[in-house]
């Protein structure tokens, strides 16, 4: 039998591939308990590999009965196995909290015995933390596909955020790589969470929003139809699977506040299956629309398996692609873009060299230049270099006086990007012509200089601080920043 420390090592290591755990923006009131979750989200820092480290990020167990090809914890993988007892993990969490190591808990799990068996143990652990140890801090609980609605509801009453991983961008890939995970078992808990949150917010239309929604854009829709009139959301008289009564809701706190106040998120693995970025972005869009996801996280596939169905173990994780997908996700959530605008049939993959907003602008160059003093807020948000805050400032400022180029920097516009796409009072400062090739080369050159990537043939001594590998891989295959597509010099250094 492993010690708690050994279990901690095994189960913290097993959880590092799950990225859906950034802090949430939840405001949990401190009612005399220990810990709190500030409205701006819990404080967190990031480890060298970009993962969140201020939460205790851990698996409840890695003894999995499933055999998902892409997973380090799959049944057939030769790894050390361990499981916590609910009390053991609750005590560990509270001890870590008291020592100021962590501010919250991100609790995921493999499937031990069955989804309900595992989820019940997760529920017991969180309940101990909340009720016995009085922990009021942030808890993000992973929901296992196939869990019964009653247990899910009870976990939702205890946790701040829930997440059910969609895992792969299409149903076909899920069937191939994780045949024990059925789409309907993934979408049913997502649906229940959304429905409960929607009912609690008393929004109109709850219960009808799931009809005819296709999450996997190329899939069969039937598994999304509700099976009954309503999914049971449980009440104070529920019993668990063993017949024990489940805890009644605490008195003095409204139910409205308590069900997963930070909403739900999901995670999609990128690069384990052959889908295009277009399919991935479309699936994300459907998840946001249908399930009101707070975030869809992307996780670049790290090879952990020799399966012939997956990239070889020597394949580098597609981190640049993951980064561009997050930028595309930003466009979906904050800039009013649709998936079909970001990528279309002719352009199914994101450009790894340029951010998706610039790529869209270059493909739609006929819409530019836009006159900054005239175009609508929606149009302002389409201009590269103009963010959500600066777009609002422009709208406010131009009511008072016409905006000139010199004002843009103070407003917060990234002028070196925006200048190719705008006019101010009819004046264009983007160069001799508004040509996509020319603009692209200028952008790439600026990017190289920003990254301090100097051209190889410039006879410049590389220092420790010149990155030798970046999104293009190595110095040898990066684009020459000072030449355009025709080999002409486009910028000078200085
Ligand atoms: S269910 Fe699949 S993804 Fe989850 S731990 Fe088990 S093998 Fe891994």
Q: Care to describe what's here?
A:
- By secondary structure, this protein is of the alpha/beta class.
- The protein folds into three domains: 4-235 and 258-306, TIM Barrel, CATH 3.20.20.70; 356-428, DNA polymerase, domain 1 (Orthogonal Bundle), CATH 1.10.150; 436-477, no CATH class.
- 34% of the residues lie in helices and 8% in strands.
- The strands form two sheets. A six-stranded parallel beta sheet has the order 1-2-3-4-5-6. Strands 7-8-9 form a three-stranded mixed beta sheet, with no helix packed on it.
- Helix 2 crosses helix 3 (115-132), helix 3 packs parallel to helix 4 (149-158) and helix 8 (277-291) packs across helix 9.
- The model is unreliable at 38-43, 45-49, 204-212, 218-256, 454-462 and 464-494 (pLDDT under 50).
- The chain binds iron/sulfur cluster.
Tell me, briefly, the overall form.
Answer: globular
Average residue pLDDT: 79
Radius of gyration: 25 Å
Proper CATH architecture of the largest domain:
Alpha-Beta Barrel
Q: Report the portion of residues in β strands.
A: 5-15%
Distance between the termini: 64 Å
> Count of helical segments?
16
The largest β sheet comes out as:
6 strands, parallel
Bound molecules: iron/sulfur cluster
Measured as a percent range, the helix fraction is 25-40%
Number of domains: 3
Give me the CATH superfamily of the largest domain.
Answer: Aldolase class I
Give the strand line-up of the largest sheet.
Answer: 1-2-3-4-5-6
The run of helices and strands is HEHEHEHEHHHEHEHHHEHHHHEEH
Low-confidence stretches: 38-43, 45-49, 204-212, 218-256, 454-462, 464-494
Number of strands: 9
CATH topology of the largest domain: TIM Barrel
The first-level CATH class name of the largest domain? Alpha Beta
Helix-and-strand structural type: alpha/beta
